[in-house]
Write a structure and sequence with these properties.
With about 130 residues, the chain is mainly alpha-helical. It is built from six helices and no strands. The protein starts with a helix and ends with a helix.
């Protein structure tokens, strides 16, 4: 991934949005969403190599694959929630962004419950 290209695109998209905003056009919202999608697609191409490397590292540590799935799901929830919250805030909807953050936190807590269960089992086995 070439970060210079991504940052250049971000700056160009912001400048274009500011120019369109001055004319009062409502197309700015769609432009922001399209720019966010393009940036996500450009950066997501490097995710597969990261996933392969992380799986290798976890396999070296003999960590259960279930925990790797939880980690990746949590990471996905964080990215999707951040994406949605930024979009809501850009549209001026801070209350909706706050509720999206709350929903993301609850979803993250829900998928991490098996990790908490395993941690409690480890601690209780060490104590008794």
């Amino acid at each position: 991934m070439d970060i210079v290209i991504v940052i250049g695109f971000c700056i160009a998209a912001v400048c274009a949005c500011k120019i369109i905003e001055k004319t009062g056009s409502e197309i700015k919202i769609f432009m922001v969403f399209a720019a966010m999608a393009v940036i996500f697609l450009k950066t997501s191409s490097s995710l597969s190599s990261i996933f392969v490397q992380m799986k290798y590292l976890f396999s070296q540590g003999s960590i259960d694959e279930q925990y790797i799935k939880i980690l990746f799901k949590g990471l996905g929830i964080c990215y999707i929630t951040k994406f949605a919250c930024d979009y809501c805030r850009d549209c001026g909807e801070n209350a909706i962004a706050g509720q999206a953050e709350l929903a993301g936190k609850i979803a993250l807590l829900m998928i991490s419950l098996p990790l908490f269960n395993a941690l409690i089992n480890i601690v209780s086995s060490l104590l008794f």
